[in-house]
Amino acid sequence: MSASPLSIWVVSDGRAGIQNQALGLAEAVARLTPATIEIKPVRWRPPFDRWPSALKTPAMLAPEAFDPRAVDEWPDLWIATGRATLPLSARVRDWSGGRTFTVQTQDPRWRNPAYDLIVAPAHDGLSGDNVFEIIGSPHRITPTALAGAAPAFAERIAALPHPRVAVMIGGRSKAFDLPQSHAALMADQIRAAVEAAGGSLLLTFSRRTPEAVKAVMTERLSSLPGWIWDGTGDNPLFAMLHAADHILVTEDSANMATEAASTGKPVHILPMVALKPAGKFARLHADLAAHGAARPFDGALDAWSYEPLNETERAARAVLEGMRAR
Predict the structure, then answer these.
(1) Torsion angle in degrees (nearest 10) through CA of 126, 258, 53, 279
(2) How far apart are CA 149 and CA 237, in angstroms?
C-alpha cells in the first residue's frame, strides 16, 4: 500500500440504497487511513441493460456513465455494488495491471474469483477464499453521521415526547407484500403502542412503498405527536434515528434492519405478508437477534440494550488487511 492517501472509487448504478453500500464501506476505510473517494456511476444503454454480464462491453455503456476506456490512472481501491457493475468489476484486475484491489459487496453470482474480496451478507451463505461475511450490508450510518444530521431537523423533533418511535416502512418484494389491509392493521398496532407509551412517531416510507399504503398509514397515524415525512425536502432519516428511543422496521429490507441495529437502540421487526419462505431474511433476523439487536414487534415498546452493530468498520479492516497482504 502506498504511503500517500489511498485513492478509492465507489462504483454503482447510482441508486441510493445500492450506492450507499459501497460508499459506506469506502467511508469506513477512509476513517481508518487517509483516502480520497470518487463516485463513478455505471449505467448501460437501454438495449443492453438486461443483457447477461458476460456479454456486456464498455461500448454498451450509457453516455453519462463512467467509461473505463478513458482511465489514465486506476485507483488503489475499487468498491462496487450491484449487478450493473459486474461487467466492469470482474475486469478491473486485468485493466489495471493488478494495481487496483477490487471489492464487490453482495453476492456477485458471476465470476466470483475475479474479485480480490467479496463483502457478503452472512445470511446469503456464500463461501470462498475471497469471501468476508458480515451481518447485513455495509452502510453509511455512524454515531457521528447521525449526530451531524440532527441540528437541521431539531425544530421538528426536539419538542416531541419520549419515547420517540422511528418507523421505517418498505414495500412489496419477491419475498414479502404489504397490501393496504395489512398496512392498516400495522398502523393500528403502531398507534396503540405509541399511545400506550405516551410517546411520539417519526415515520419514513421507502421508494418501494405503494401510494395506497402511504395513504392508509398516514391517515391512521397522523393523530399521533410526531412527523410523518412525505418525501419532500431533505431526507430526515439520520436525524430520526438519532432522536429515536425505539426503531421499527418492516421485515423486507436487510439494509433497513442493519442500519437500525448500528444505533444500539431496540429494533422491532414489523411482520409483512410472506410470498415465499423467509429464507435469508429469517437468517438475518436470527443473526440480529443473536447479537441482541432485534426482536419481532409484539405491540409493546419494551426496551433493551446491546453493543451497536459495527459490521461496516469490520469489513473496512478486512479490506485494508487484504490490500496489505497482496
Answers:
(1) 50
(2) 9
Inter-axis angle of helices 254-261 and 280-291, to 10 degrees? 0
**β-bridge mates for residue 203, sequence order:** 167, 228
Q: How confident is the model at residue 79 (pLDDT cuts 50, 70, 90)?
A: very high
Determine the Cα–Cα distance for residues 114 and 91; give it in Å rounded to an integer.
7
pLDDT digits (tens, 9 = 90+) for 186-239: 999 999 999 999 999 999 999 899 999 999 999 999 999 999 999 999 999 999
Full DSSP string of 5-55: PEEEEEEE-S-HHHHHHHHHHHHHHHHHS-EEEEEEE--B-GGGTTS-GGG
In angstroms, the CA 115 to CA 104 distance is: 7
Distance of CA 298 to the CA centre of its chain: 25
Unique residue bearing C-alpha cell 464487490: 104
Would you state the cell numbers that stand for residue 321, as one nine-digit string? Answer: 488487511
Give CA–CA dist 257/284, Å, rounded: 9
The DSSP symbol for 61 reads B
